[in-house]
């Protein structure tokens, strides 16, 4: 897929109907030869729309007008490029816990959670948030995570978590204003509800910080997994992370995680982790596949806003 095609896909499938601002920018970038040429000088993982738009927002550049955005980005390319090369898309969306909760709540309790690609670790607190699946509410506290669920009976409880740890190449710290500003910049412009959710989830993490380890998902996962307490069910999980991992490394991770004790929960796009015989997704929007121990269970939206269970 070319860079232009990736931007068209992002605009037409991922942000369509959710962020008109980024839908406009995506199609503008896809048809701007000057910016495409500049993006072409970067490694493929550094060309992605979420990263570019987040960097320009973080630098204070304009995103509301495509012409102003293109002019700013090309004119300020040295500053933009420097941030693209050093930063990564680390969207830490606690709303994804609403998609994970039905699986986590059904596993043998208590749980020892280990998140791969944890960012600041905000998805390590599924027991601290509240959830609303239509009229059904689970748990208490803030934030309240809304999820449109079909094909499943919502869980009646939150999981019991006795240990939480995260592994990331560049862990973020919710007590560091610079790290929080980057997390904020990664949220799409129109999504004020997600900004409020970020602040509420960051307060939860700051009050009881998780163990966050700087490391590689293959080289450093086994050692961290051994720190999980005896008597707890180890759950290694990740959501919208593996697309940033080269395919051979991704395959090594899948082999490794399958040999660990406990369970593996994956929530990734179907072209990132492939499964046979998937049903058709509910619509043309971009969906992830929620899977437990390699068995696909449901379609999910990227921010946890919807889950469609398989049969």
How would you sum up this structure in a few lines?
The chain is α/β, with parallel strands linked by helices and 311 residues long. It contains eleven helices and twelve strands. The protein folds into two domains: 3-86, no CATH class; 94-309, 3-Layer(aba) Sandwich (Rossmann fold).
Describe the structure.
This protein has 311 residues and is an alpha/beta fold. The chain contains eleven helices and twelve strands. Helix 1 runs antiparallel to helix 2 (20-30). The model has no long low-confidence stretch (mean pLDDT 96).
Strand content: 15-25%
Regions with pLDDT < 50 over 5+ consecutive residues? none
What distance separates the N and C termini? 33 Å
Largest sheet: 9 strands, mixed
N-to-C series of helices and strands: HHHHHHHEEEEEEHHEHEHEEEE
SSE arrangement:
Layout: H1 3-14, H2 20-30, H3 33-39, H4 49-58, H5 66-75, H6 77-86, H7 97-106, E1 111-116, E2 130-133, E3 136-138, E4 144-146, E5 148-150, E6 161-168, H8 177-185, H9 192-207, E7 211-214, H10 221-225, E8 233-239, H11 247-259, E9 263-268, E10 288-292, E11 295-300, E12 306-309
Helix pairs in contact: 1-2, 2-5, 4-8
Key attributes of the depicted protein:
11 helices; 12 strands; 311 residues; 3-stranded mixed sheet; single chain; Rossmann fold; globular; 9-stranded mixed sheet
